[in-house]
Amino acid sequence: MSLDLTGINNENEYYSHHYLSAIFEGDLKDTFSQWQAMEDSYGETRKAEQQKSDPFAEQRAPWIRLKSLSQDFFRLQNQLEKDRDPKFRLELQNAFFAKLITALSYHWQPAMLNLGDTGDIPILAEVAHSLNPALWVLGALNTAEDKDDPLNLTLKPEQWLYEHEPQAALLNLRLEDLINKAIFGLDHPPR
What we know:
Layout: H1 17-48, H2 62-67, H3 70-82, H4 86-103, E1 111-114, E2 120-123, E3 125-129, E4 132-137, H5 168-171, H6 175-183
Antiparallel strand pairs: 1-2, 3-4
Helix pairs in contact: 3-4
């Protein structure tokens, strides 16, 4: 089987071409096997209990849960084209992001994280190992007409939670710079 990498960008050639073309698929083989076993087990349980198929069931393989979000995604895109109000756009996006994060087997948990002198930033989810963060999910809110690369966008004041006020400097940082300088510059950044 040849792995389809459509839609995956190798930013700054983080991975070598050789790795992506010759090794990457082998590294994912165990994960794909686990997902197929999940799907097989779900199918057997569903048949035995004569249940109706639920594409969003926690026991389903992630690719089934993601595939099931396609209508929601295109509905979101249609709604975002019609409305430019940042608060409304954020509500629409977050409703979709909650489903997306859950489909990827993470927990939707919007929170504010303190980056020390840089200030607090809003995140949508976090995965941690012991006290060290492994993953932070940041949301990008595009309020412009163009469909810009999310890494070129900046955080918007509407994204701050719990009456927190953003530091002006954070609102001027492109997400790429925020990630590379402020987040990866931490003593214990997510990896």
